[in-house]
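Think of the structure tokens as a kind of shorthand, similar to the way a musician reads notation: each symbol stands for something richer, in this case the local conformation of the backbone. In the example below we present two proteins back to back. Begin with the first one, reading the sequence and then the tokens, and try to describe in your own words what changes along the chain.
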Amino acid sequence: MLRCMTLTHGSPGIVEHPSMSRLPPLTALRAFESAARNRSFTKAAQELFLTQSAISRHVRNLEELFGIPLFYRNHRAVTLTPDGEAYMRDVVDAFARIDLATRRLKFSGRQNVLNLQAFSTFAMYWLIPRLGRFQEINPEIEVRLTASVAPLDFEHSDIHASIRAVAGRVDDGIRSDRLFDYRLIAVGAPSMAAAWPLRVPGDLKNATLLHSLARPEDWGVWLRAVGAQDVPLEGGMKFESSAMAYRAAEQGLGVALAQSFLVQGELANGTLRRIFLHEVASERTYYLMSSPRHCGDPALELFRGWLLDEIATATAQPAAA
């Protein structure tokens, strides 16, 4: 029970402050915060390693303490009351600030560096636009991001994790989290529709193809899949990376093949448009691969959890038309 000091004419003593005697227990607050955030007593129980009845009991104790209901209890689900919604916002924010303060203290005086590696196109078109969110909630972590297409070598480098598109099986000795599939769509600038009327894939013989030297096989795979093998693969314009090819497409230089997951923002804001509805799956899949030497490192585990949440949110959103 919290107590506060009070001074009297005689010796100082400790008396119980009446407003402090009714503060809710921390365990009850944590149970409410998890149940409210997850909108589920079951998920809260799983998250906190408690039973569902324990979560329910903690929430009921809070409601009795406050004298107001925090949840509507339906047969199959629970929903927050207006008072519960308002209380949840403050409590969730409070626990987030406590968590941040704890991490700052934990890493105080220590250099907490996270060395990441990714293909340049993924880094430029997907990761970097979102990386500020990770840095905002983890300011104590110094992120160092490099791009490379060289073979992965955790043994002789200090890389904590690498994000790569892999064909076939991944190494069983490396923790690999699947992120998304590699799916190809033809894209160009909105302005090129008038210059090059493209109604079917075969019309690409009249357009400039933009090739990525990092993915030289993509156009051949895509054209065979859509039945347009008569489109010549020679000529066009060639760029060192897919990111350069995407940028050239945005500038109206021709048609590029883009990984659909990486250009949803550009399709949504209109800097790129899909030329055809065809979407062709590649044999590649994107993974986050963690160095065996660094698994369990707090910075890596925080990034891994954040990245998987971001990927889940992005894949749940409808694809941009």
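Once you have a description of the first chain, move to the second and do the same.
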Amino acid sequence: MTRVLTQLELLRELEPVAEANVNRHLSMAKDWHPHDYVPWDEGRNFAAMGGVDWEPEQSKLDEVAKAAMITNLLTEDNLPSYHREIAESFSRDGAWGTWVGRWTAEENRHGIVMRDYLVVTRGVDPVALENARMEHMTNGFASPNEVGMLHSVSYVTFQELATRVSHRNTGRACHDSIADKMLQRIAADENLHMIFYRNICEAALDVAPDQTLAAITDVLKNFQMPGAGMPNFRRNGVLMAKHGIYDLRQHLDEVVMPVLRKWRIFEREDFGTEGARILDELGTFLEELEKQAVKFEEMRDRSLARDAARRERTEAAS
């Protein structure tokens, strides 16, 4: 029977990989400044300083773009909880500690620039946004998975890539070149973060194949985005899925499968008896996920067709 490595043993075994990937990240990451991505000349005072408070007609964003921007920003706002999670799962020493600090500093820019953009352009109600931030951050974030290094690194691998896809599609949905450029910049950060975690997880598969596969499978079967507990998440999530910001098909085809292929999960020959059983479990889960994605696409197409027909009737009547 394969021995299960402790958290401390895993961290020690994988620290050289973490150090190499921290150095790789630092060599590839590009410094950027949030203030360079905000159209400051569009800004004006609110009523408290003699100006005018927000009204819905001031926003250039449609309902889909608003929902996506709010969801993505509130997700970024929970950074203190994410920092705590990875600091507890990894370590604050050596390469692990360097990564935790650097990752946190880079992620913090995302919330800064998105909020500045939305407030300056009056894209969403700033009072409602602040109230939602207070509620969401007060509730915090707790991982839906077991506590531990392998579950954490597996989760953030998929989550960072999912966030990249969501940000990139949100930029397009805003129909604003400034927002698109800003969210492209954020998405590039998320991609580099994903690569760090993906490489750590790949090394963990070599060190503890069955143990790592169990964590990956558990994460995928229980996966949910980190914003799941925020106000209006269900409503906004449905809007985002319906209009191609982030849906089940994208989750499967653009997030889950590319990572599993990179790890060559179904080609590996180093799994033991338990690993082979878990691999079958993962394969069954992915087949079911494919069926769910097809079902979702059919439902979405019918819904969009009904919406289009309704618009046509309204336009004809007017």
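Compare your description with these statements about the second chain. Residues 7-306 form a domain with the Ribonucleotide Reductase, subunit A fold (CATH 1.10.620.20).
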